[in-house]
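Hey, can you fold this one?
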Amino acid sequence: MRQQRPKNFNCTKLTLLGLLPIVIILGFRYLRPYEAPLEHYASPEDELPGKYMIRLRPSYSVEQHSAATGHNIQKHVYMSMMTVSNRIVYGAKDITPKILAAIRADRGCPVHLPGLLSVLVVGFKPIENLKGASTPREDPSHIFGKPVPHDNREYDPASPPEPESCGFNNPESSSYDPSSPPRP
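Sure. Predicted structure:
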């Protein structure tokens, strides 16, 4: 006598076949070779050799990273951030080839390929408790470069834009109605 298969067997088979590519992709994410986990960081103004932006695995601390590399990484940290996905990103300077090889060998510092299996970073919050880390709040121009001038004028955060250039509820505008509620 032939054994009957359950009715939902085809649904289970389709679900497992649909999840198989995701499992394979996520599996290879951690099995791929650790060739180039670092991106060289240098702005056009100050190009320093041995300056890198390093991304750590989620929930992997700098202390664990220092212990895995065998070097005190914290004395090289000049800037650090924590992403919303609980991943530490830090800027390191004065990285020698010996330290660079140790960082590349650390499995807590995965390969980051932009656009491929990368987590969308929604926001950063600075980490204050790292020794040697300084997160400037007033002048981040050394990280992001100088502000781009708009309309051949330098950006001045102290001077607000002229109200006539805004275009919202402008009395000179032909569509201005004082009795209308403000736009959201």
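Residues 35-47, 111-153, 163-170 have pLDDT under 50 and may be disordered. Let me know if you want another pass with a different chain boundary.
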